[in-house]
Design goal:
Radius of gyration: 17 Å
CATH architecture: Orthogonal Bundle
Helix content: 55-70%
Largest sheet: 2 strands, antiparallel
Order of helices and strands: HEHHEHH
CATH class: Mainly Alpha
Number of helices: 5
Strand content: under 5%
Number of strands: 2
Number of domains: 1
Distance between the termini: 47 Å
Strand order of the largest sheet: 1-2
Length: 104
């Protein structure tokens, strides 16, 4: 391993409920255009904090959810509605697993 490889610095941003993005930030984080980001809102994949487009804000958790939807589109060719359904099913699986864990 070379010294250059050892000293490489990784940068990132923690995405959680306290992190906030506007529409353009969501687009950058997901590497999508504005129309696709708005389609994610229309399909209910992510929900902005305000009704007015200029005041839309998204949590880091919402951005992670959008990134999963975008990955489903890119890697599996799923449309936005299909990605929304897949996310609903993944959420349901998580809820069922938590309920099962509580019963054990």
């Amino acid at each position: 391993m070379t010294m250059k490889e050892i000293t490489r610095i990784l940068e990132g941003e923690i995405l959680d409920e306290s992190t906030e993005f506007d529409l353009e930030g969501l687009c950058r984080a997901c590497q999508v255009n504005r129309k696709l980001a708005m389609d994610l809102v229309v399909e209910g994949i992510v929900e902005p904090s305000h009704r007015d487009l200029e005041q839309w804000r998204f949590t880091g958790t919402a951005v992670c959810r959008a990134q999963v939807a975008v990955r489903l589109r890119r890697e599996l060719g799923v449309n936005v509605a299909g990605a929304a359904l897949a996310l609903e099913l993944l959420d349901e699986i998580s809820r069922l697993r938590r309920a099962l864990d509580r019963r054990r």
